[in-house]
């Protein structure tokens, strides 16, 4: 067995061992195919922490605990205080890739490695890695940009030309991409609410005497009132919605 060890965290039992194709594992070693191993190659970099504390936290890939990465952005991985497992916060170094064993041990190995062994004494599992697929180039689309979700801090692509809110494909939560969209929508629904209020007030004033004898006028009053309340609710919704940050064009 040829050795290629590189600790991911100091004083942690997290390392990488590579096994050449000619080597054969001992009888106590269990082999695992790469299809059973979670993908641990992040396609994002944690943004620089700003005024909001949420930008300095990521989710643990093992127990989903929030990990504070403030002051650790120069590291490639951080350790979770809950499960003591490593989680990558940066892409692997050039020529390297992350692999997480089924025992949750995070390994780093060469991109060309085909078999690696878990270094933990209670595991020693051999993982057979399939060759890394070639990622096709993302076609240039007008308005397409890279966005960091305000909820889970993962990165996804979003077309800014879409007149809609963005739903993160990772956490499935909705947010506004940039503050301008939410602000414009809030102002729009506020103006609609004012117009409906004025129209409804005028109709109520001029038809009140008729509404006493004709129940249909009360129905019109109630419909306008409901539309006004809906417009006000939409205005408050867009004013309070969280805003995801734009990292830049693709």
TrEMBL record:
Keyword Transmembrane set for record = yes
Where does the record place Polar residues bias?
A: 23-38
Catalyzed reaction equations: a 1,2-diacyl-sn-glycero-3-phospho-(1D-myo-inositol-4,5-bisphosphate) + H2O = a 1,2-diacyl-sn-glycero-3-phospho-(1D-myo-inositol-5-phosphate) + phosphate
Give a GO cellular-component term: phagocytic vesicle membrane
Show the Pfam families listed in the entry: Tmemb_55A
Tell whether Membrane is among the UniProt keywords: yes
The EC number of this protein is 3.1.3.78
Its placement in the membrane is given as: Multi-pass membrane protein
Q: Where are the transmembrane segments?
A: 187-208, 214-233
- List this protein's GO terms for biological process: phosphatidylinositol dephosphorylation
The protein's location, in the record's own words, is: Late endosome membrane; Lysosome membrane
Q: What is its main location?
A: membrane
Q: What does this protein do?
A: Catalyzes the hydrolysis of phosphatidylinositol-4,5-bisphosphate (PtdIns-4,5-P2) to phosphatidylinositol-4-phosphate (PtdIns-4-P).
This protein's name: Phosphatidylinositol-4,5-bisphosphate 4-phosphatase
Task: State the species of origin.
Answer: Cinara cedri
């Amino acid at each position: 067995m040829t050795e290629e060890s590189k600790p991911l965290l100091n004083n942690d039992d997290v390392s990488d061992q590579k096994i050449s194709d000619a080597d054969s594992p001992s009888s106590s070693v269990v082999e695992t195919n790469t299809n059973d191993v979670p993908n641990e190659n992040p396609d994002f970099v944690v943004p620089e922490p700003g005024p909001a504390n949420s930008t300095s936290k990521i989710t643990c890939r093992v127990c989903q605990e929030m990990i504070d990465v403030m002051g650790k952005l120069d590291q490639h991985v951080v350790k979770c205080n809950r499960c003591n497992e490593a989680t990558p916060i940066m892409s692997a170094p050039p020529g390297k890739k992350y692999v997480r064993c089924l025992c949750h041990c995070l390994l780093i190995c060469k991109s060309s490695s085909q078999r690696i062994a878990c270094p933990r004494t209670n595991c020693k599992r051999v993982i057979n890695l399939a060759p890394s697929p070639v990622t096709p180039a993302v076609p240039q689309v007008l308005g397409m940009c890279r966005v960091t979700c305000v909820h889970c801090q993962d990165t996804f692509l979003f077309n800014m030309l879409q007149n809609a809110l963005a739903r993160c494909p990772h956490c499935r939560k909705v947010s506004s991409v940039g503050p301008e969209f939410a602000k414009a929508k809030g102002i729009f629904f506020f103006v609609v609410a004012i117009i409906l209020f004025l129209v409804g007030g005028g109709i109520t004033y001029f038809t009140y005497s008729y509404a006493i004898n004709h129940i249909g006028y009360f129905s019109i009053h109630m419909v306008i009132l409901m539309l006004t309340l809906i417009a006000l609710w939409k205005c408050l919704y867009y004013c309070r919605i969280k805003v995801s940050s734009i990292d830049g064009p693709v």
